Amino acid sequence: MAFWRRSPAWPVVLRDDSFTDPPGGTLILRRLVRRDRDDWMDVREHNADWLDRWEATLPPVLPGRHPGGRSRSAPTFGEYVRLLDGAARDGTTLPFAIELDGELVGQLTVSSITYGSMCSASIGYWVSEHVAGRGIAPTAVALAADYCLFELGLHRIEVNIRPENAPSLRVVAKLGLRDEGLRVAYLHIQGRWCDHRTFAVTAEEVPGGLLARWRGQQ
């Protein structure tokens, strides 16, 4: 943890200028900001059927009790951005907007960043259906994983996916992440506890970087 405290690297911009999948262009991971509100709301609205079934939800709590003493009401977009920035400054999260040639097309979050004897983090992501299948999600995951493994000094990155989420399973398959098995009732999704499969990669498995390995497979 001390490493992060000495060098709070936020905001961070990660980019791939060699994004070659037609029609090509530049893929950027950057901080989500307040002025993204309209674009973010628009892409979420147009992808409701595509994304909502995979969205995490808060489990029920006992009457009169709230997790952490906080309200369960949904934050405004401005509050959401502020919460993300706070977590990033604390060093526990890296919340990125995914941008392709200036268009906001998704989001990627590195969460549960832990140093000490574990040195690990978890990556979650979503992309708009109209750009799915073009290599955007695996490229974004590879960019973020390489930053965590070789800039932040983490050892292990994991991705947790619902077994029935075929598009997301294709992402980790393309990247060659190791399947570590099933986590039973791992996350609360759309009102119920759902199983997830865990996929992971360590720094030793990709000495040249996950992005380079992914590019070599294309």
Automatic annotation (TrEMBL):
GO terms for cellular component: cytoplasm. Keywords: Acyltransferase, Transferase. It comes from the Bacteria. Gene3D superfamilies: 3.40.630.30. InterPro entries: Acyl_CoA_acyltransferase, GNAT_dom, N-acetyltransferase. Signal peptide: none annotated. The keyword Cytoplasm does not apply. PROSITE patterns: GNAT. Residues 41-204 form the N-acetyltransferase domain. One of its GO terms (molecular function) is protein-N-terminal-alanine acetyltransferase activity. Belongs to the acetyltransferase family. RimJ subfamily. This is Ribosomal-protein-alanine N-acetyltransferase. It comes from Sanguibacter gelidistatuariae.
